[in-house]
Amino acid sequence: MSELKRLKIARAHCKGALTRIESFVREPANIASATIDVLEARKDKLISVLKQYESIQLDVLGLDEEDSEDIGEMEDKYYMTLGKINEAIKILNKSEPSQSNCMSSSKLPNVEVPTFDGKDCTKFKPFYELFIAVIDNNRTLSDVQKLFYLRKYLLDEALSVIVNLPLVNKSYQEALTLLKKRFDNKARSICNHINILLDIPPMLKGTAAPIRTFISQVQQQLHTLKNLDEPIDSWDRVLICILNRKLDSYTILAFQLERDPQILPTMVEFIAFLEKRAMALEDSAPHKSNDSAPHKSNCFDNKLRPVVRAANVSTQSIVLCEFSKMKDHAIFNCPKFKMVTIETRLSFVKDHKLCSICLRDYSDHVCKYKFKCRICKKPHNTLLHVEEEAKVSLVSNSNACNAVTLLPTVKVKVIDKYGRDIYVRALLDSGSQASFVTNTLVKELNLKPFSNSSSNIIGIGNKITVINQTINLSLRSCVYKDITFNVNCLIVDSITTPLPQNFVHISQSNIPEHILLSDDQFNIPSDISILLGVDVYFNSLLNGCIKISDGPVLQNTVFGYVVAGKIETKNKNSHLVSNFVICDEGKLENVMENFWITEALPQPITGVTSELHKSEIIFQESVTFEHNRFSVDLPLICSKDELLLGDSFSIAWQRFLSLEKRLKQSPMLSIMYKDFIQQYVAMGHAKKVDISTYDINSGSVYFLSHHPVFNEDSKTTKLRVVFDGSMKTKNKISLNDVMLNGPVVQSEIFDILVLFRSYLFTLLCDIEKMFRCVLINDHHTSLQNILWRKNPDMPIICLQLQTVTYGLKSSTFLATRCLLELANRYKNCYPLAAKAIILITYVDDILAGSDNIDELHLLKYELIELLKLGNFNLHKWCSNHHPVLEDIPNECRYFEDLNINRDYVIKALGLKYNIVLDYFYFETPCCEGKVLNTKRSILGFIGKIFDPLGLIGPIIVSAKLIM
């Protein structure tokens, strides 16, 4: 490496170091959280970096006098950064001594102000009042110093509210006002404190410590509610009823025995009882030093506190864990002992001659405890339980054949709270009078169970299980779309083990390939979420039963064919390989199936589902047409007020910070992105709103994240900002999850292309910014917000999108449905244009034509005039008859002029179309240097060929024949 090159690398390193210090100082949050020591260290580093840079620059100029380095820019950056560091150090030096003097004159202990991150609004009031008392009331501090401390004590979301305010005196009061406006919501605080009170966990043990904790939690929330002017003195009856349910049974019994049943107790008496009981339990607890005398209790104590007494005996007897040699826990509570294998536990117990029941060293004495294993009910400790393995007969060829019994399983669609289909696995059971569902699935569906009555479930051995909760489920068949079952299910924790219990090989099962199975993975162990009883079982049966010789029975149902009965399976030592091959073949079959689907003629839709019908109804009821603009509602699965979206601001904020870093790294991208947003606002497609007016935790507000997408093939828009409607909120729900998709209202690509090729003269154009020409009604725009600022030094703003937005799954339906509505309204005035929009328009691409020149001119005129009525503008005009475009401005044409030596090729619905020679043509997909030496790679290569008309079908089929 030459000396000059080495010096330039060292110079670049110095510039990078200075830039990093400048970036640190530029961020207000960094300055607010930094100490004097940190700032002094960065100041020293900054000075040394400049000295090193100047020395290197002199050496570079000595070797290259024409070096173009701008030293002035480096010096400007240095002095600006140094000035900001000195200003911050000056503020810290002034604030710390003054605070110290204030505290010392009053001779008070240091008071630590806690930090506040904005996640829990109930913590704002204590934080704010303590900050006012310690910092704001300190008259020796200036407002800018108080603002500095305020920033220091704020984190995350709370800091983002004021972080962009300038560090000047007048910003302090503004910061306090913004914080109080955002977090000091009295109604929300009261609701949060009541919820905390209701969510206090029940006491598992009625000992002194849990009672003390319970009292503390209750009193803390009640005192806070009283300070918020809530009339808690009149809540005694309700509070005692709620809190009484959270006590253990022995404490409840003691409370009922102590109080007068004729007199209603008050909260003061209730708390006094708990205080008295906690004190009594503390005083009656045995001392640890009294090991020799066993603890004795009276008859009343034996009845009320057997758990406490047993715990006391154990504590006195075991003072050392033999396994970890620790004195603070017994061996059966030892985390290390629980983490080792069962073989290690058994060996340790045997080697140390410990009792297999209580795990104590009793030597030759007989254990006095009679408890049994909770799993197998045998007389040993549960930690020493050994799972019994199934007996396997080993033969010389390791191909032992076993008969496995399959139970009839089906896959069904269950409708959740938001109307979405959730695919689950169910078991058909003709021997069950009731249907069951797991509690896990109920939570996933977000449905509310009923607790009206209890049901006694009698199982094998007359064992009775009491179930108190039921739920109504709506089930759909995956095979017959119009069949639905409304089933009342009892809720249980678990229905059965995964079925089947072991993987079953079906390669030799002779199951016919033409039948449609209800569960295509019936041979793979998987969880059962629903058990369908006898009422559903017999109502689901259809004609058709296939008996496989020496194998299972295939019964036809509305869910498809179920497989049940005994099946011979070969157990080999290659399960992993078999599983891999099965999955691989499944994917290969899907690829082949997709190939033939693309070549098949499109099938007409015979019916409309309820979701698509609902989308159409919402559109018809909400659409308005005023001042040449359509305005519509977003098609939601429920009303906006019923949505449970949750907090989307936090996630959108984090993604925006990542976007800012990306824009900072690419100046050209940053310029294009800012121009796009500026144009978006200037056109009225977005407007600025006050973010403080939103309750970001409510279900009716949603913030969209956004990012850039490049399209190099686009003639007009290389950069497009895409909004992400699938971003999950903290409730794990996105806007697209609560939105209906809407039906397809335009013709299929196949029909459009066939009709397009039938014309002698063609006319193609594109609707400019079609989505953004349709407005969203005002009461739904709060679901379309984005965060934005031009640079990190500016405060964050909220932009509310006013139009149909790309990124939402209903956008295509809304835009195309408005286009269809426009055509139907004015089809008598503009018949040619209306016909073109209805029949030969795909999203925003119009592929029209005519066999007559005059009619072609008229069609062009009608298209312009009709779409102008809906505020739609046409551009990218092109035609194989160029004179028809003479009155079209050059900027609205796809090609400004025609040159016979130029290749005039455009993309028409995914196909390349030569506008001059008037034909479609195909190109071989790029292999990207890969060798096509496997069937899968060949299939992938063929799959890249888009041929909706089947024009090159014979060529593609020839390639597929190798499969």
Automatic annotation (TrEMBL):
Top-level taxon of origin: Eukaryota
Any single biological process term in GO: DNA biosynthetic process
Pfam families linked: DUF1759 (PF03564), Peptidase_A17 (PF05380)
PANTHER family: PHD-TYPE DOMAIN-CONTAINING PROTEIN, RIBONUCLEASE H
Name of the protein in question: Peptidase aspartic putative domain-containing protein
Organism per entry: Parnassius mnemosyne
